Each structure stands twice: as C-alpha cells, then as structure tokens.
C-alpha cells in the first residue's frame, strides 16, 4: 500500500511540475495561480466524501491489494497532487525578477518546500493524525488552500470560489453532524497512530443477538456479544483444542 501511495504521489507531482512549467512559460499570473490552488482544495474536499465508498468498492471488487491500492491512490490523491505540483514552477516564474538571482530564488523556494514536507510528515504522523483524524485534517487542509487562493487573488472568479467555499463548509458541517449522530448511536470512528479503527454494534444474523465489533481498516478484527460470554466467531471456538493437544498448556 505504501509503495503504491508513494509512487502515485511522486508520479503525480512530477506530472504537475512538467505541466506547471509549460503553463508558466505561456501565461504566468497570480490570478491563475489562485485558481489552481483553489481547484486543489476542491479536489481534497471531494476526497473526504468519496473515500469510504471508493475504498469499500475497490476492496470488494478487486482481490489484488496492490492493484486496488494503486487505483485508490490515483483516484483520491493524484488530482490534488498534480495541481499542487503545478504550483511550484508557477511560483518560481512569478517570483523571478532577474536571471542574476534565479538560482537563489529557485533554491530558496525548493528548500522551503522540502523543509515544509519534512515538518509536515513528522507533525502529521506523530501528532495530527492520532489527535484529530484524517477527516478533520482534510477539512483543515482544503479550507487553508481556499483561504490562500482568495488571499492571492480576490478578483478572479471570486463569486464562484466563495460559493463553492460556502457549499463545502455546509457539506462539512453536515458530515460532522452525521459523525456526531453516529457517536451518539454507539459508532466510534477514530484514527490511531497506525490504523483507522471502527467500533459499532449490529444484530448477529445467526443468533439475533447484539454484537459489538471492532474493525481495523475496513476489516473485522474482533467481536463480542454484549449479553453473554459466548464466542461470536466460529474460529475462536477451536482455541480450546490447544488443551487437547497440550494438556499442560497454561495461560500467561
């Protein structure tokens, strides 16, 4: 999964750098840069709404985890990565005022970009994702990019951008409300430092009893009946065979 994710991100950024260079040579202005950043924000915002459906669909219909992970990365992350890749050469073009200082300008921009990537990697992995979860981070990232696009150029398509911004904010509020409603109904959806964890209840079709389940990354990890000590999963009922084959077996 990580191989596919890293490969798709790097490939998308490379394509963005190439396209950004071509676009910057033809027409470089702050208004178009603002639109590009805004479109990247919209792309990230859409990811929030389609990711669960897409991942479940791919997991159900494609057995090869390598292929499904690559397709998921292409659909979810490639558009935003390409658009954000366009920003770098575009910003260089706008920042250049003289060929005498081109080397230092390019070096400074890429140094800041790389330093930001390193800082963001550690901050996200060690603190932000475990503390806030990916959904909130996607909202924060998309909102930040929209604000940046408006600050760069408040004139270019301002009504359209503000309208889309309002729609996205309202959609995020609805999504947050649904999340709150799920939590009140006993559904827990959190991001840990390692996995996405779901805890929810449903009726077991075999026994018609309420079962509490914990899923990790869209896969059932463990389950228990709320009203008895009976084992839910059939395979766990064979654990007692360990005593048959090894009578001296003891729990530690």
Describe this structure in words.
The protein has a four-stranded antiparallel beta sheet with strand order 1-2-3-4. It is elongated, with a radius of gyration of 24 Å. The model has no long low-confidence stretch (mean pLDDT 79). It has helices at 2-26, 30-61, 65-76, 78-95, 102-152, 158-184, 241-245, and strands at 188-191, 196-203, 210-216, 219-225. The two termini are 35 Å apart. The longest helix is centred in the middle third of the chain and has 51 residues, at 102-152. Helix 1 (2-26) packs parallel to helix 3 (65-76) and helix 5 (102-152) crosses helix 6 (158-184). 67% of the residues lie in helices and 10% in strands. 16% of the residues are buried. By secondary structure, it is an alpha+beta fold. Strand 1 and strand 2 (196-203) form a beta hairpin. The chain folds into two domains: 2-184, Growth Hormone, Chain: A (Up-down Bundle), CATH 1.20.1250; 195-245, no CATH class. It has seven helices and four strands.
**What Rg, in angstroms, do the CA atoms define?**
24 Å
- The number of distinct helices, counting runs of at least 4 residues, comes to 7
**Total number of domains:** 2
Shape summary: elongated
**H/E series:** HHHHHHEEEEH
Largest sheet: 4 strands, antiparallel
CATH topology of the largest domain: Growth Hormone, Chain: A
Share of β-strand residues: 5-15%
Unreliable stretches covering 5 or more consecutive residues: none
Compute the separation of the termini in Å: 35 Å
In short:
This protein is α+β, with helices and mostly antiparallel strands. The protein is built from 7 helices and 4 strands.
């Amino acid at each position: 999964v990580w191989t596919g994710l890293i490969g798709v991100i790097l490939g998308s950024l490379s394509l963005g750098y190439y396209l950004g260079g071509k676009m910057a040579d033809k027409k470089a202005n702050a208004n178009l840069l603002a639109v590009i950043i805004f479109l990247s924000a919209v792309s990230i915002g859409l990811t929030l709404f389609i990711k669960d459906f897409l991942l479940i669909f791919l997991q159900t219909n494609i057995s090869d985890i390598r292929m499904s992970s690559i397709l998921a990365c292409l659909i979810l992350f490639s558009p935003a990565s390409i658009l954000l890749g366009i920003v770098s050469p575009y910003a260089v073009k706008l920042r250049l005022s003289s060929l005498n200082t081109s080397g230092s300008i390019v070096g400074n921009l890429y140094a800041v970009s790389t330093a930001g990537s390193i800082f963001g990697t550690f901050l996200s992995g060690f603190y932000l994702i475990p503390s806030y979860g990916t959904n909130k981070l996607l909202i924060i990232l998309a909102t930040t990019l929209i604000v940046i696009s408006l600050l760069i150029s408040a004139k270019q398509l301002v009504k359209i951008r503000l309208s889309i911004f309002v729609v996205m904010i309202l959609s995020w509020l609805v999504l947050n409300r649904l999340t709150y409603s799920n939590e009140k109904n006993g559904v827990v959806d959190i991001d840990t430092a390692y996995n996405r964890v779901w805890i929810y209840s449903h009726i077991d079709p075999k026994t018609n009893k309420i079962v509490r389940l914990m899923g990790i990354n869209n896969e059932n990890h463990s389950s228990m009946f709320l009203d008895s000590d009976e084992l839910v999963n059939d395979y766990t009922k064979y654990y007692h065979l360990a005593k048959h084959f090894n009578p001296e077996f003891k729990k530690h």
